[in-house]
């Protein structure tokens, strides 16, 4: 009713009655933020103006525009003789939609869009939707579907792994392995990092590389995080070592996980033996919520580490703002220390900064003696990697008790 455009049902009917259709599904970027910031009245006006611009772009009887859902529209050409001309037309449409602001009262709103294009009639709508998802993932204005995406196989693989993860959770086969962390000054193992693993029915140990991202798509990730919280706290209660626990920004912003972690630390009383390793810390957008969480866990004595620091987006300002205790130097950097002088210089800079800021450094992926000697030489405080010890099941933590390197 808002736009007077056809809906999804009409689009699917029109595709069926078309001879050689081409379809573009158009999504307004960050529309939820527009609604939240300006209010629903202005949001509705944006939708109306956006639909008018789409409608004005129709040039012949073979073209039609549809509104599929809140901020998603479709542009169908029923008789497409040239894929190149349709793509060119969509490029012109993107410019028309994004280069001119939408004005409402005193507000001026500039929009961005993502577009998925497809040409094969049999799976026209599904393929355009897949292309739209690819456009969003790759942050491109538009993507045209091709069979090279192999997306169907990916979907099938995701379904298989989703079932495997759910079954592993039901059968208590998602477990924690613990990797030792060595204190260079005391020359002793003083900490362990809790690392998630899946155990197959045949006892094969599966790396999180194969299942962690899929668990997020299957909405099983929070359950895995809460399971790892339990296992880390159990280890901290049973042993004299500090235990590191990986927590993502996503975990912190998930109120259920956030509350569960804080309550578990409070009730167990082991806060002083827990190190929260913050991963995926690039460009923290919800800084106040993250900082509030950090203040809470620190009240119980927890320490905070920033994981994978030193490559890509590495912001020293964040380290100071977040009140960090440990900087974990990125493993991809550490692995190159014995053969790459630039990597060694970056590591030295991180260590020098940490000492000035009264933070400790941990080098990950120390795999052999030469790298061990380099990280000791540049002044790293703690060392982790296969040279110190591989991740082991919970029952084997005690085997490191009297080891001194």
Task: For the structure shown, list the relevant keywords.
eight-stranded mixed β-barrel, TIM Barrel, alpha/beta, single chain, 15 helices, elongated, 405 residues, 17 strands
Topology:
Elements: H1 8-16, E1 22-28, H2 31-38, H3 40-56, E2 63-69, E3 72-77, H4 83-98, E4 102-104, E5 107-109, E6 113-118, H5 124-137, E7 142-144, H6 151-170, E8 174-183, E9 188-199, E10 205-206, H7 212-217, H8 221-238, E11 242-248, H9 249-253, H10 255-268, E12 274-279, H11 287-299, E13 303-309, H12 316-321, E14 326-329, H13 331-334, H14 341-356, E15 360-363, H15 369-377, E16 382-384, E17 392-393
Parallel strand pairs: 6-7, 9-11, 11-12, 12-13, 13-14, 14-15, 15-16
Antiparallel strand pairs: 1-3, 1-6, 2-3, 4-5, 8-9, 8-16, 8-17, 9-10
Give a structural overview.
This protein is of the alpha/beta class and 405 residues long. It folds into two domains: 8-149, Alpha-Beta Plaits (2-Layer Sandwich); 155-400, Alpha-Beta Barrel (TIM Barrel). It is 43% helix and 23% strand. It has helices at residues 8-16, 31-38, 40-56, 83-98, 124-137, 151-170, 212-217, 221-238, 249-253, 255-268, 287-299, 316-321, 331-334, 341-356, 369-377; strands at residues 22-28, 63-69, 72-77, 102-104, 107-109, 113-118, 142-144, 174-183, 188-199, 205-206, 242-248, 274-279, 303-309, 326-329, 360-363, 382-384, 392-393. The strands form three sheets. Strands 8-9-11-12-13-14-15-16 form an eight-stranded mixed barrel, surrounded by four helices. Strands 2-3-1-6-7 form a five-stranded mixed sheet, with helices on both faces. Strands 4-5 form a two-stranded antiparallel sheet. The chain starts with 7 loop residues before the first helix and ends in a 12-residue tail after the last strand. The mean pLDDT is 89.
């Amino acid at each position: 009713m808002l736009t007077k455009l056809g809906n999804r049902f009409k689009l699917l009917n029109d595709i069926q009655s078309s001879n050689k259709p081409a379809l573009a599904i158009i999504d307004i970027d960050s529309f939820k933020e527009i609604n939240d910031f300006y209010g629903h009245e202005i949001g509705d006006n944006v939708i109306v103006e956006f639909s008018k611009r789409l409608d004005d772009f129709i040039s012949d009887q073979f073209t039609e525009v549809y509104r599929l859902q809140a901020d998603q529209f479709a542009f169908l050409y029923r008789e497409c003789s040239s894929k190149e001309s349709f793509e060119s037309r969509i490029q012109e449409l993107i410019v028309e939609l994004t280069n001119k602001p939408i004005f409402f009262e005193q507000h001026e709103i500039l929009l961005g869009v993502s577009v998925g294009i497809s040409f094969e009639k049999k799976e026209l709508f599904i393929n355009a939707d897949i292309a739209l998802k690819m456009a969003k993932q790759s942050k491109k204005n538009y993507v045209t579907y091709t069979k090279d995406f192999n997306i169907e196989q990916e979907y099938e693989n995701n379904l298989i792994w989703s079932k495997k993860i759910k079954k592993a959770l039901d059968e208590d086969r998602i477990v924690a392995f613990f990797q030792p962390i060595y204190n260079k000054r005391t020359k002793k193992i003083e900490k362990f990092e809790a690392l998630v693993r899946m155990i197959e029915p045949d006892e094969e140990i599966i790396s999180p590389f194969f299942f962690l991202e899929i668990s997020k798509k299957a909405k099983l990730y929070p359950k895995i995080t809460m399971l790892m919280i339990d296992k880390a706290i159990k280890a901290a209660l049973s042993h004299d070592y500090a235990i590191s626990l990986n927590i993502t920004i996503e975990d912190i912003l998930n109120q259920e996980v956030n509350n569960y972690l804080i309550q578990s630390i409070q009730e167990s009383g082991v806060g002083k033996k827990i190190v929260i390793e913050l991963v995926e810390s690039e460009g923290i957008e919800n800084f106040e919520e993250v900082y509030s969480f950090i203040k809470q866990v620190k009240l119980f004595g927890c320490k905070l580490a920033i994981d994978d620091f030193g490559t890509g987006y590495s912001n020293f300002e964040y380290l100071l703002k977040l009140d960090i205790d440990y900087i974990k130097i990125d493993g991809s950097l550490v692995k190159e220390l014995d053969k790459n002088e630039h990597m060694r210089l970056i590591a030295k800079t991180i260590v020098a900064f940490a000492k000035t800021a009264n933070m400790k450094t941990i080098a990950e992926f120390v795999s052999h003696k030469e790298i061990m000697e380099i990280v000791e030489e540049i002044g790293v405080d703690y060392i982790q990697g296969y040279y110190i010890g591989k991740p082991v099941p919970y029952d084997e933590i005690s085997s490191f008790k009297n080891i001194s390197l």
